[in-house]
Amino acid sequence: MERPILYLAITNHGFGHATRMASVAATIQKLCPEILLILVTTAPRWLLECYIEGDFIYRPRAFDLGVVQTDSLTMDKVATLEKLLDIKKHQNSLIASEVNFIRQNRVNLILADIPFLAPGFAKGANIPCWMMSNFGWDFIYRDWGGEFTTVADWISDWYSKCDRLFRLPFHEPMPAFNNITDVGLTGGSPRHSADDLRSLWGITAPVEKTILLTFGGLGLQQIPYDNLRRFPDWQFIVFDQSAPDLPNLVKINDRKYRPVDFMSICERVVSKPGYSTFSEAALLGVPIVTIPREDFAEATFLIEGITNYNQHQIITPSEFFQGTWDFLHKLPQLPKQSEPIAKDGNEAIAHAVINYFESNKVLENNIN
Fold it and tell me: Is residue 276 a contact partner of residue 13, using CB atoms and an 8 Å limit?
């Protein structure tokens, strides 16, 4: 019997979509190693390998772009519109090329996060397309108005052809989708012991004075690192290789380590609003410090989610960029909701995928 083959299409935007899809892919592989994974993304292979320990096929392709950004907080709407219109113009050839690949490789199922052309691939190849996300790109673009409204309508139409959506926490309503299954938080978990991390990276400050600064794959150019001099007996962990050399700044320069690996030895995570960072922090119960983003519609739902279900501090841009970081001396606020949030997203999606293969006789034996 041939191996069941899963095609995972990932939005070409930052690292967040890639890491949350890779977390789900890793869970699928762990529960059912027989399934062959094809990851389709322009995110670097090394990033995926940080989450997926076994083999997979890497296909570097981009079918969307998200938002053109110079860093984690700065967007170029003109360039974004131009590229979206180019994708729309060439959508038929993009779809035809991918349908050909999917047929040649005998793919059984598509799981996408959340490139809008993926349902077109599935229809052309006569297989199902499932998707996972907490927002659709139609929601982001529609909020910008003007010429983006027509683009959003076009994307909503593609999303409506999706067979099933796994809706992640901290979500917008996602009305374009017709078949929605709500699931819990997704994300990776730490792979290294606290003692090993502290020893290897020279982290000697107590947990309550250890802070992780992470701004995703796009980084943030204007982090006011000078403020760290105000906290000489604290330590700050960053993945930003352009950060200055300061005695209390620990720069992680080994790609096999991820932000989630350090969260459990930190008292707080300082981050822009981003689902993957918020989700991994919430999975571990680590407080989040974040800055609202008025120009990115998803941020409202992310901020609401983190205030409801995790310890948090919502600070203003001026407190972060121009202030003295006094917020680090204040206690985080408690979550507004007393009921904990579901944390089973990886497993829920993985089991659904495996059950699909079993019920369609692609998998011969039941998976325990």
Answer: no
- Cβ burial of 254 (10 Å; 0-12, 13-18, 19+) is exposed
Here the tokens at position 17 are 């979509």
What is the pLDDT at residue 294? 75
Q: For residues 301 and 172, what is the distance between their CA atoms, to the nearest angstrom? A: 6
d(CA 30, CA 166) in angstroms, rounded, equals 20
Answer left, alpha or beta for residue 229, where phi above 0 means left and psi between -120 and 50 means alpha: alpha
pLDDT at 218 over 50: no
Give the pLDDT confidence score for residue 221 in this predicted structure: 57
Q: What is the pLDDT of residues 334-366, one digit of tens each?
A: 999 999 999 999 999 999 999 999 998 877 654
CA distance 295 to 251: 30
Query: What Å distances lie between residue 169 and 9, 18, 132, 308, 343, CA to CA?
Result: 20, 17, 11, 11, 9
Give the DSSP letter string of 354-366.
HHHHHHTTSSSS-
